[in-house]
Description:
The chain is α/β, with parallel strands linked by helices and 111 residues long.
Amino acid sequence: xxxxxxxxxxxxxxxxxxxxxxxCGRPRVAWQIDPFGHAREQARIFLDAGFDGVxxxxxxxxxxxxxxxxxxxxVLWRTDERDNTKGLFTHMLYQSYxxxxxxxxxxxxxx
Length: 111
């Protein structure tokens, strides 16, 4: 997705939520379910739009294995090389699109 398309979609979606639910309907967390790659500028767009965090699933399997082993699936994604005071809380989902063990909210779960 090109940045201008991403901004347009975010703007239209946030406008719809605001018109439908008012201020209480504004999301604070973004979810990128299936991106191919993660650009710092996309994180900056989320931060500038008022989001506190982003969750995503897709990551290179080697990096994912390393992060899960080292317990570094959560990071503060620095969105500006010159300003180290801002960051977007970022979390990589543990088990693909599923919740971690013990946090299943589906009727098919056994936990």
